[in-house]
Amino acid sequence: MTNKKFVQRWAMRCSIACIAFGLMDANAFGATTYPVPSLATNADNADLLDRTLTDMGLSRIAWNTSYMSQAQNLDTALLDHEITCGVSRHIVTLEIWDSLTHIAAGRQDDDLRRIARQMRTWQDAHPGHELIVRPLHEANGGWYAWGFGSGNPYGNTMEQFRPAWWHVRGVMRAVFPALPFFWCPNGLINGAMSYADWYPGNDNAEYVGDDGYNRSQSDGHCSWRTPTQVRQETMAAIRAVAHIEKPYIVGETGSSEPNACAAARHSKAEWFRQLAVWMRDVAPSYNVVAVNYFDYDKTTVNGNN
Length: 305
Description:
Number of helices: 12
Number of strands: 10
CATH superfamily: Glycosidases
Distance between the termini: 7 Å
């Protein structure tokens, strides 16, 4: 888990409880009330959701993103628990562990139909809520089976992404026609890749967004990226291909503790304060509706907490 004292300091100094429900408290910055995105969480079990809310100093939150593979059943117990925490927008990250060509050829169709049926059943029983699916996320990286970035395990290419996305969407919406899809690439990797050649099209995604982090501990040197530096180039590139009326979700974000070099000038508490200001001043112009905070300790995975 993220260091609790920093998150609580963030909550105290940045009026994060007001951000969580989509409005910035006027007293937070000595100004009028601003419409800002809802603060959201990335939690794939009830215990993690509860602990994240405790870290944030909150009891309720409006959005949550969970994770499942195509081999699993929809975790309806988690979705029901989210409701008790105030969640009304439920993003399910669907990790389809196969190559893009196999996905497009239909090898996972039976599982996709099963999950779509489960999603439709749950949605029909909860009309006041919205269930959103996020398949094939961070595909421009090479770390997932469906990724086409450098070093990907199946030799996927960027040209194979759209057919796979369109196929998944077609199969699942044949079962659940109203199911919203969230297209969520990784943030631009050294500005090296355009989104224009693999965006599935405005008619094939109800939400767009990105994942991006300040990974000071693993990036080395004196690396430290503010929320603006993490997001701005990526958001501009996505908005160049996705209509501005398309709601934008920050799928995953967070900050590690500063590395030894950066610690002399930066802190995680500083980053959280900057995020609150970014949500207030910048995010509304991109039609950002939610910012998902990824509260995981990955020190043993990639050196980041």
